[in-house]
Amino acid sequence: MSATENRPRPQPYVLVGGVSMRDLLASCAAAEAVSTPPRMPDPETVRAAAERPKAA
After folding, report:
1. Which stretches of sequence are listed as region Disordered (predicted)?
2. Beta-bridge mates of residue 19
């Protein structure tokens, strides 16, 4: 038997409390995205948009 046969196979994901780490990180990112208030638009961008001619 070789040394590589004795090694345990790596798990594709780790379950913590029945939830995969990928799902846990995705839910944290989603919660942060919904709880972060929208940013105010950049004044320079707003000014440039106001100066553009309107499409008919």
Report:
1. 33-56
2. 16
Say which amino acid occupies 26: A
pTM assigned to the model: 0.39
* Whether 2 contacts 11, CB under 8 Å: no
What pLDDT, in 10s, does the model give residues 39-51? 888 888 888 888 8
**Per the structure block, which two tokens stand in for 33?**
């995205």
Rounded Cα distance between 4 and 16, Å, is 27
Tens-place pLDDT, residues 9-56? 666 665 557 888 899 899 999 999 999 888 888 888 888 888 887 766
